[in-house]
Amino acid sequence: MRLLPFAGLLLVTVLPGQVIELGGRLEPFFDRALIAESKGADLRLHEPRDEGIVMKFDRPWEGAFSAYCTILRDGDRLHLYYRGKKAGGPDGTGEVTCHAESRDGLSWTKPAANLPGAPAGSNVILDEAGVTHNFSPFIDARPGVPADERFKALGGVVTKSPDSGLFAFASADGLSWRRLQSAPVLTKGAFDSQNVAFWSEKEGCYVAYFRTFTGGTTTGGVWNPSGLRTVSRATSPDLLHWSEPKAMAFTPAQEHHFYTSQSQPYFRAPHLLISTAARWVPGRRPLTDDEAAALKVDPAYYKSAKDASDCVFMTSRDGATFEQNFREALIRPGLDLGQWVSRTGYPVLNLVQTGPAEMSLYTNQDYAQPTSHLRRYSWRLDGIASMSAPYAGGEFTTKPLRFSGRALRLNLATSAVGSVRVEILDADGKPLPGRTLSDSQDFAGNRLEHDFRWKKGADLSDLAGRVIRLRFVLKDADVYSLRFVGTN
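The chain above was modelled as a monomer; its predicted structure follows.
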């Protein structure tokens, strides 16, 4: 913003780069990107509903060490990919990639894949040593992608072998996979984790987010990592040739290990990167030996694994910096003691819509236990976080923005005595006639989509293309997201 003297007055001019070109895109209140100032209102992280077990890893080729799950929506079908084991023990031998599917995200089936060499009738779709440990697919949204490469994936781990790293795969149907080349496409990382990639519409390239460490040394040509498990990223025009990895920045600074990042474009607002990361705390074992024995935790695993984990929520607007707006857990381990075993509760990659008003995140639970399973948690659409005010009231004002459309559509909720009012300001912060606070609807209710009104109605087409600000005045209320809808 720039101050210009004019005939004894002080005029406030908003520079072009300071205006948010909102257009008609959805903006969830997962961060403070739209917020210029607030008083008594702030971001609030919402606890999900625990919807219980949706699928057990109970087949002979799945078992206690099933993990690193990915869910993809393909039209009206959901694909679930996860690690299974043809052989017992946690040492990495006999690992395979399994597949399940669902129409609603609530009930899952495990169709036989008939993969040569796999157990008869199994849902094993890939059996390749070294890549099935953490095989993580995505649906390629790149314009013009060939039909036989509509599904892509990365998988692999780093060993002392010179040909180790992440390998790229492609598939027409998400079931039959082939390598895109024999050599790994990414080699500079510590890939013993779930490493994710996708086509970024915003950046116009493929982006990968993968495991690295904050420190380390090289001895005899071998990298010895140290410090915190963290996340780096690289970009590629073709999934085969990648830029040099660059460590993600964190605001505020990273304090804990992130075992997986589960980085993904938010499915309702793909310009916004979200992370439902597994936060890992080594050396913290809340269970007693007797409790672990009662749970039948794998004895060899329990002897060496001493840690606890939960799920946290981060966002990124530039793809290179994770904003930790919430340091509290998004999903805590529950009352079930099995959720406090090492590496339990790791989030599945990708939020998905599971109903007209609902979205879900899944976690793998009871790791290293015979009761290993997939669990579902749900929120209202856009409901992970909100701008919220208590009974005493509060308000916030947006940064200058420019929109297209005819109406302001809000996802919002109040108590019976609560309210939401909206005032529209010009670029200099002056209330616009007819859209002042006294003209505003005094909204009470709970709506996923509400076209906000003033005394003159909901039509804002006269303001489309102008630089404005929005002032929200709340009482015991939450605003989850906004967007402008309709055409002029």
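DSSP finds two helices and 35 strands in the chain.
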